[in-house]
Amino acid sequence: MIQEYKPRFSFEISWEQKNRADRLLAAYGLRRALFGNILDDVLDMIDEFGGIAIGVIMSGKVKPRDIIPLMKQAEEVGKK
Q1: Is residue 32 a part of any domain in this protein?
Q2: Long-range residue pairs from 41-49, CB within 8 A, at least 24 positions apart, any chain
């Protein structure tokens, strides 16, 4: 039986991040759905603004929720 290849996006995280993710994102499929949407937003920003978007995100001078549309909307809804 030949399995179809499914691409993955992988990077290291800290043990604290792992423990928080295990506690907060325990429901099956939640991580994929959540981070898939965030990745789309980040890639859209990079596609539109190029290296400037990467620089702003990596500078640490602003929080991702301040510049990533999906995260900003989630923050606004959560504050209501």
Answers
A1: yes
A2: 41/68, 41/69, 41/70, 41/71, 42/68
